[in-house]
Specification:
Elements: E1 2-4, H1 17-21, E2 28-29, H2 46-59, E3 64-69, H3 71-81, E4 86-92, H4 102-118, H5 122-132, H6 137-144, H7 149-154, H8 158-165, H9 173-176, E5 183-189, H10 202-213, E6 218-225, H11 231-242
Parallel strand pairs: 1-2, 1-3, 3-4, 4-5, 5-6
GO molecular function: hydrolase activity
Domain AB hydrolase-1: 15-235
Protein name: Alpha/beta fold hydrolase
Length: 251
């Protein structure tokens, strides 16, 4: 199983999942391009991220499961649509936006974040991202004053990468419809305080749209989980899906 991380994180974000999943699978927890111990290539291209996943799949023996979180969930789905030898995909809280004006908002955000990063205004780029993610100003101020802010700023250049992973910000239904592998779309059903500004049911609505687009995709809500879910809550759900226990079908 390959763990595909989300925005403004390195592989340490998924590290708590590894010992729990390792009871069931051989787990590859990697730093996405431009993060942590991984190298980078400019200019960024989504194809380079596909190549990284393909290299991991080759290392794993030629096929693998993917578990992606947030923008990493979008990347995992895009990798499946691109034809990589992926057996199954589980995606948690993919941040596609299906509300009115979503494409225009994403375009404006992408252009603005690229401009800020080009001027090396990493703090401003992070604040812009947090506002997009629904964080109230109080939460942004608290984050800015926390010990974790410096680590996030070090990864701020990858905000532009995740913007590309999300395409125009809406579910790419035509590409998703070409996915032939089994797919599980999961959400936690609880909005984090740092995402209080998002519309009610934001992730659930996105997951429903993706589920409808992919033939045979399954949908599940993992109760009482926020955007960063408890491994003990996630692992039983995705393990059952990856192990293909049809007698205990997810719904």
């Amino acid at each position: 199983m390959i763990l595909v991380g989300g925005g403004i994180v390195d592989r340490s974000e998924n590290a708590p999942l590894v010992p729990v999943l390792a009871k069931h699978f051989t787990v590859y927890n990697y730093d996405r391009r431009g993060r942590g111990d991984s190298a980078d290539t400019t200019p960024y291209a989504l194809q380079r991220e596909f190549e990284d996943i393909a290299a991991l799949i080759d290392e794993a023996g030629g096929t693998a499961y993917l578990y992606g979180v947030s923008s990493g969930a979008a990347l995992a789905l895009e990798a499946a649509a691109a034809g990589l030898p992926i057996a199954k995909v589980a995606a948690y809280e993919v941040p596609y936006d299906v509300s009115e004006g979503a494409k225009q908002r994403h375009l404006e955000y992408t252009e603005k974040v690229r401009s800020l990063l080009a001027d090396d205004r990493r703090d401003d780029a992070m604040r812009l991202f947090m506002r997009l993610a629904g964080a109230p100003e109080e939460a942004i101020a608290q984050a800015h004053n926390s010990p974790m802010w410096a680590g996030s700023i070090a990864l701020a250049h990858t905000l532009a990468y995740d913007a590309v992973c999300l395409g125009d910000g809406t579910p790419p239904t035509e590409r998703l419809a070409t996915i032939t592998q089994p797919v599980l779309m999961a959400t936690g059903g609880t909005t984090d305080d740092t995402m209080a500004g998002l519309s009610n049911g934001f992730f659930d609505t996105a997951a429903a749209a993706v589920t409808a687009a992919i033939p045979g995709a399954e949908r599940v809500i993992i109760p009482n989980q926020g955007h960063v879910a408890d491994p003990e809550a996630v692992v039983p759900v995705i393990t059952r899906f990856f192990n293909g226990n049809d007698s205990n079908k997810l719904g």
